[in-house]
Amino acid sequence: MIARPHGRHQHKTFSAAYVGRWAHLHRRETMGAESNALRHGHASDGKESPTYRSWKAMKRRCDDEKFKQYENYGGRGITYDPRWVNFDYFFTDMGERPSGTSLDRIDRNGNYSQCNCRWATRTQQNRNTSRSVINGDIALLIYRDAIGGEKHQVIADRYGCSAQTVSNIKTGHTWSDVTGAIK
Question: pTM of the predicted model, to two decimals?
């Protein structure tokens, strides 16, 4: 048994393993962001986990006025759940980031929170932008009209998209997960 090197319990004795663990944790607490990832178990070989990187990127988009995309997030008033300032709460609410996904706000005008976030694929993210004029319901209508033989340009004019988009939906190159079309 040895004495803890410093702190409010100096008079107590602890095992060498306890002191070593305490010193290791204390050292990490004072080292910065990469150490936070280590402390949370989300780094290996000096690299942060995808989940941890997503959390850091979310915070940067909302908090860092110097970040190039800040105007689209924090600059528009987009914030995150106050509990999510701590990675542990973010991880508890969102879980591990699945491969091939990234953090997405379901309502793109809403804040980052458990009820408004999901791990989404690039396709899901691309459909959830201010540039997107088509949603799943519209894709189904376009598909129905296109397989019914209506001219693509007429359909495109009706729904505010291109004739190529209509063709892609009809042939299953896009929205096949919604329409059931086979490529």
Answer: 0.57
